[in-house]
Design goal:
Blueprint: H1 15-19, E1 27-29, H2 32-41, E2 45-50, H3 55-65, H4 68-77, E3 79-84, H5 89-103, E4 110-114, E5 120-124, H6 138-151, H7 153-170, H8 182-195, H9 212-225, H10 228-243, E6 257-258, E7 266-267, E8 270-271, H11 272-289, H12 292-308, E9 319-320, E10 323-324, E11 338-339, H13 347-354, H14 358-364, H15 393-400, H16 404-423, E12 430-431, E13 434-435, H17 436-452, H18 467-485, E14 493-497, E15 500-504, H19 507-524, H20 527-544, H21 577-592, H22 595-607, H23 609-614, H24 620-630, E16 634-639, H25 645-655, E17 662-667, H26 671-679, E18 694-699, E19 702-703
Parallel strand pairs: 1-3, 2-3, 16-17
Antiparallel strand pairs: 2-4, 4-5, 6-7, 8-9, 9-12, 10-11, 13-14, 14-15, 16-18, 18-19
Helix pairs in contact: 4-6, 8-9, 8-24, 9-10, 9-11, 9-24, 10-11, 11-12, 11-17, 13-14, 14-16, 15-16, 17-18, 17-19, 18-19, 19-20, 19-21, 21-22, 21-24, 22-24
Length: 713
């Protein structure tokens, strides 16, 4: 292979793989061509897994994969394969299980060494090129593993076989048991309360990750029990996240996580799935409290997504990178990218840009002459300022003699000015692939925002601003794109980029998209979304359901290169497919009255029974689904023309309330109602009352007398 010439990854669509297309490493994508070469040449495989916005993936590429010396060793002794974990979560999940089991930790970049028949025998994450930070050098690792493969082959193969047998055994489903009850919910809430950081928000110490499924569960426990503590944990955590450095105070949206325990210093990549789930948590907090603060954070985040992460075809892009070229080096050819360069500021930059508004801005966001980042002589942030909310508006007003309204106006002007200044900087790279699963989450967030934010009243805006209409358009557009591009009538595809739709969908693609569609039908009442959700659920059950153990496998099991057919049982940055699927089934049952959906949900909950009781903090979304399965549900149906202000007033009254165990359906009299009634016969006889739009509140499909005013509703 000629150094500097494109390698095989140049023909791929994944932005992550394309980032490595000019490495001197002789990379292969995951596939039979690479496996066949490993077998033919009797070489072990080096498998490197990451994603395009991963900072340490970039570091390892620069240090090792761009090194001719290390590339030469890899090309001589190994067959090297690159995998985008976001395109192939099935491959990632198998080998991450191995890494965690053998090293006690995990993360990306993931570095795994395999036999030619894909059995792992050694692993790690980031390796520096030479030994440092207490980690072995990558060059030394390669030399030792090549030697072991030549001289101790039998031991290596025996170890690999033993490890795979252990992984297979640990992956077997436990015997089904009795379905869990409300005691699991009580115990789960207590687990989170004990882990809660009452001073700083969140759970535990650094690093702190947003895991919105925790917050969604705790808000449901507040609704179920009336206890204040679960609610207060959520509100404190969301406020700390929104005020801290993890939020982009200039452009909106949230960074991936905080490296410190105070939510001050972020890891700067922005992921679509984080934006979607944080929006959902903020919207629910706004419903619980009627506090515009949470609604405004949701709105600001959605504006970021709709502005920066929306594909021209209609879907949503996956992420923005953490790294970019510092603005002062923008004109320097080959300048090295720096983490957070797009987002951090020197004090003199701020003063030059803001003029008289700078003092207010500096007080608000903790700006210091020598930078406000924790001092570290090796840090790229030293001497620069990470924006976080340091002072309240009232404190700044007291210090400056300005009225609070004047302070707020100055901050708004400053934000707009810095947005424009920042737009001239080199922007972090965009991962522009469209993933079905993550788009499902974003559709859910946009559709919920369309209902909750509606006419802007909860934001403190004048009625008539109507942000909800904008979010409904975004949700419909993305759902239409997925239906037309990623669905052939029998199967979903996972990834779209540049006109190319590919990769068989996984369980999460089905589950998350169904969630989005169930939110969307509640936003616009279009029966097509419900019909598609029902079809997708049937296909998900057919392709992924585990008849023996209950719940859903993550994959179909059709790809022989994936060693294990795994069942995700951890609600992490993204919730487990089974956790979301149970919630979907419960909602489908309360829309259509279907007993089969409830029975399947109960079977899945039963299979997770031990996990719910013994390791509740690992499955908060499944806990939320258990609460939904146990709760009495309410159906609220508003019948009336959507253009009628009286209909909208009834819908606003229903949607602003926090009713996690309920559905709200807008029903347009005429053909739409007739089509909905084919799917939900119980709404067929509902009518307007004396020509006025009417709301029906039903429990277990038994309805009270209709009402026609928001107060009565």
């Amino acid at each position: 292979m000629i150094v500097g010439m494109p390698n095989r990854l140049a023909a791929e669509q994944s932005p992550y793989l394309l980032q490595h297309a000019h490495n001197p490493v002789d990379w292969y994508p995951w596939g039979e061509e690479a496996f066949a070469r490993a077998r033919a040449e009797d070489k072990p495989i080096f498998l490197s897994i990451g994603y395009s916005t991963c900072h340490w993936c970039h570091v390892m590429e620069h240090e090792s994969f761009e090194s001719p010396a290390i590339a030469g060793r890899l090309n001589r002794d190994f067959v090297s394969i690159k995998v985008d974990r976001e395109e192939r979560p099935d491959v990632d999940r198998v080998y991450m299980t191995f890494v965690q089991a053998t090293t006690g930790a995990g993360g990306w970049p993931m570095s795994v060494f395999l036999t030619p028949d894909l059995q792992p025998f050694f692993s790690g994450t980031y390796f520096p090129p030479t030994a440092q930070f207490g980690r072995p050098g990558f060059d030394d690792v390669l030399e030792e593993l090549a030697r072991a493969w030549r001289e101790e082959r039998e031991r290596v193969l025996r170890s690999a076989t033993h490890i795979v047998e252990r992984l297979v055994a640990s992956n077997r489903s436990r015997a089904a048991e009795e379905a869990p009850n409300a005691l699991a919910l009580v115990a789960g809430a207590e687990h989170f309360a004990r882990a809660f950081d009452a001073r700083r928000g969140g759970f535990g110490d650094a690093p702190k990750f947003p895991r919105p499924s925790e917050l969604l569960f705790l808000l449901r426990e507040h609704a179920r029990t009336g206890q204040d503590l679960p609610r207060d944990i959520v509100l404190h955590t969301l406020r700390a996240m929104a005020l801290g450095g993890m939020r982009d105070h200039i452009g909106g949206g949230f960074h991936r996580y905080s490296v410190d325990g105070n939510w001050r210093v972020p890891h700067f990549e922005k992921m679509l799935y984080d934006q979607a789930q944080i929006v959902l948590a903020c919207l629910e907090a706004a419903q619980v409290t009627a506090d515009p603060f949470y609604a405004q954070i949701a709105e600001d985040t959605l504006q970021y997504v709709e502005r920066e992460l929306t594909d021209r075809a209609g879907g949503f892009h996956s992420a923005e990178d953490a790294d970019s070229v510092p603005p002062e080096q923008a004109a320097t050819p080959g300048a090295r990218k720096m983490e957070g360069a797009f987002y951090i500021w020197r004090q003199d930059e701020l003063r030059a840009a803001l003029g008289d508004d700078s003092e207010v801005f500096e007080r608000r966001f903790g700006v210091l002459p020598d930078g406000n980042a924790p001092f570290d002589p090796h840090s790229e942030f030293t001497g620069r300022n990470l924006l976080y909310t340091a002072r309240s508006l009232s404190d700044i007003a007291g210090d400056t003699g300005l009225a609070p309204a004047e302070v707020a106006d100055a901050l708004l002007r400053a934000r707009r000015r810095l947005f424009d200044v920042r737009a001239a900087r080199p922007r972090p790279s965009l991962d522009d692939k469209v993933l079905t699963a993550w788009n499902g989450l974003m559709i859910a967030a946009c559709a919920r925002a369309a209902r909750v934010l509606d006419d802007g009243a909860i934001l403190g805006q004048e009625v008539g601003d109507d942000p909800g209409a904008r979010h409904l358009i975004a949700a419909r557009r993305a759902a239409t794109f997925l239906r037309e591009t990623m669905w052939d009538g029998t199967r979903l595809l996972r990834r779209y980029r540049g006109g190319d739709a590919a990769i068989e969908g996984y369980a999460e693609d089905y589950a998350y998209l169904i969630w989005g569609l169930l939110e969307l039908v509640q936003a616009d009442g279009d029966p097509a979304w419900l019909a598609w959700a029902q079809v997708l659920q049937a296909r998900m059950d057919a392709r992924f359901w585990d008849d023996e153990g209950g719940a859903w496998f993550s994959t179909t099991g059709d790809d022989p290169s994936v060693l294990l057919r795994m069942k995700e049982d951890y609600d992490g940055a993204e919730p487990a497919p089974s956790s979301v699927a149970v919630m979907n089934l419960v909602m489908l049952a309360h829309l259509s009255g279907g007993a089969p959906e409830r029975a399947r949900a109960e079977r899945a909950l039963t299979s997770f029974g031990a996990r719910l009781r013994e390791q509740a903090r690992g499955v908060p979304m499944m806990l939320a689904s258990l609460g939904a399965w146990l709760a009495p549900w309410r159906q609220t149906v508003v019948v009336g023309p959507r253009a009628d202000a009286r209909t909208r007033a009834l819908l606003a009254a229903a949607n602003r309330r926090y009713t996690p165990y309920g559905v709200v359906l807008p029903v347009e009299p005429g053909p739409q109602q007739a089509a909905l009634a084919e799917l939900m016969p119980w709404i067929g006889a509902m009518t307007m009352v004396d020509g006025a739009p009417a709301a029906y509140v039903c429990r277990n499909f038994t309805c009270e007398r209709p009402v026609t005013t928001p107060d009565a509703l």
